[in-house]
User: Fold this.
Amino acid sequence: MIKYSLICETGHEFEGWFQNSGAFDVQSANDLVSCPSCGTHHVQKALMAPAVSMRSARPDPIPNRPTPGPATMTHAYVPPSIADIIQKIRAEVEKRSEYVGQKFAEEARRIHYAECPERGIYGEATSDEVAELDAEGIQVFALPVLPEERN
Ligand SMILES: [Zn+2]
Assistant:
């Protein structure tokens, strides 16, 4: 016996048992299948599991991805005592590292891939460049900039 989900021409859904996969077609052709709700013989098999899996296999049109907003950077509000530490860290990094300016991403990459001697560097990079470095497994971090330094 095979169970089919059936649907009539007016949309009533019901289930019917048949001897085999061909029995429905034979019975339907001979008006032996009727809708229990309205009695019509215009009944067909409703789309079942295979149709469902086809639907889920189809790529989603557009996933509900959150719209990327403008790039943000982490910010902190700190009391002067901590600002002092940040200033010291920054000064220490600058003292022990080479300033490479706009070539930062390029230099970081060369150091990471051992194309030049390992050393600390600092310089300018866009958020895109930092994202690319990050994707390559090259970890860099933004030097903290204190508000008064921006002037
Ligand atoms: Zn019906």
